[in-house]
């Protein structure tokens, strides 16, 4: 198998793990130099090429992987002044691992095709730990032949790869559904934990009861280290990012005419926290912010 040259845009908490696994597994790698990157000494030591701008990265790449914050950043990287599409090589595959609004994804995919490239959305679930281990989950929207062709590359940094659908944006739709359930569950448990504290229920008792009953699941597993020991590191996902993802979900649900009253309530909680200046906090810390209210 010939391994294509891959350019990564967004070597942050998640993107660094993607880039590192690609480089370790023999994919010729380039990455965009950016202040938001994690330290890249390990990538450089593996022979990765640092590109000063997006056009240079595009000219050097057969596959471009995006791992940026959200829809505005995806649109800017691809469509903005000096963006990737202006220098895209014919046949280049753009893989968007970001979390984005599906309607925007459809427009971006059309622009990539018009520029002579191919597009698939492959947003991620799991955490920076699994990203570093090459064990992400990917939710992919792609035509069957492109899905099959890109599977070896995606497998270099993913443990589970789900084909969400054949239309561009199917992966992002499934990601928003996933994140609504995941982040909504964390917010719900955080509210319950804050209420338990006001009612005099010890956190270890609450966690034990939830673990042995209907509250058990990934959300509790990620939140319980903070409830029991004040450790938010197992969920290094910011309140601002959670708020962004929930806003994307609510916009999608509204556009589909789907019920979203519960989602709107979660979003309202996160809106208040961001407005109060807590956007940079790891999400588990919302327990303390809820407890301080009133």
From TrEMBL:
Q: Which residues form the 3-hydroxyisobutyrate dehydrogenase-like NAD-binding domain?
A: 169-281
The record places domain 6-phosphogluconate dehydrogenase NADP-binding at 5-165
Q: Which residue spans traverse the membrane?
A: none
Q: Name one Pfam family in it.
A: NAD_binding_11
Q: Which domain of life is it from?
A: Bacteria
| Keyword list, A-Z | NAD, Oxidoreductase
Which InterPro entries does the record match to this protein?
Answer: 6-PGluconate_DH-like_C_sf, 6PGD_dom2, 6PGDH_NADP-bd, HIBADH-like_NADP-bd, HIBADH-related, NAD(P)-bd_dom_sf
Q: Which Gene3D superfamilies match?
A: N-(1-d-carboxylethyl)-l-norvaline Dehydrogenase, domain 2, NAD(P)-binding Rossmann-like Domain
The signal peptide, as residue positions, is none
Tell me, what is one Gene Ontology molecular-function annotation carried by this entry? oxidoreductase activity
Catalytic site residues? 175
Q: What is this protein called in UniProt?
A: 2-hydroxy-3-oxopropionate reductase
């Amino acid at each position: 198998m010939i391994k294509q040259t891959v350019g990564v845009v967004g070597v942050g908490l998640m993107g660094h793990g993607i880039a590192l696994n690609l480089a370790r597994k023999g994919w010729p790698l380039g990455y965009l130099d950016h202040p938001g990157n994690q330290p890249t000494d390990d990538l450089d030591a593996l022979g990765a090429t640092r590109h000063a701008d997006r056009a240079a990265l595009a000219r050097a790449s057969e596959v471009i992987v995006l791992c940026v914050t959200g829809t505005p950043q995806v649109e800017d990287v691809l469509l903005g002044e000096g963006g990737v599409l202006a220098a895209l090589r014919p046949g280049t595959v753009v893989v968007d691992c970001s979390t984005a609004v599906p309607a925007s994804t459809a427009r971006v995919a059309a622009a990539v095709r018009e520029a002579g490239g191919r597009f698939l959305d492959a947003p991620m679930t799991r955490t920076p730990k699994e990203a570093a281990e090459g064990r992400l989950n990917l939710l992919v929207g792609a035509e069957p032949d492109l899905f099959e062709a890109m599977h070896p590359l995606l497998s270099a940094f993913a443990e589970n790869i789900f084909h969400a659908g054949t239309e561009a944006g199917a992966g992002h739709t499934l990601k928003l559904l996933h994140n609504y359930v995941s982040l909504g569950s964390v917010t719900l448990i955080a509210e319950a934990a804050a209420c338990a504290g006001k009612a005099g229920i010890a956190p270890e008792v609450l966690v034990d009861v939830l673990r042995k009953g209907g509250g058990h699941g990934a959300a509790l597993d990620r939140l319980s280290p903070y409830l029991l020991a004040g450790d938010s590191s197992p969920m290094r996902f910011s309140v601002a990012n959670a708020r962004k993802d929930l806003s994307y979900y609510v916009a999608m649900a509204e556009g589909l005419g789907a019920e979203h009253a519960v989602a709107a309530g979660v979003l309202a909680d996160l809106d208040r926290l961001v407005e109060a200046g807590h956007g940079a906090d790891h999400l588990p810390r919302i327990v303390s912010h809820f407890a301080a209210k009133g």
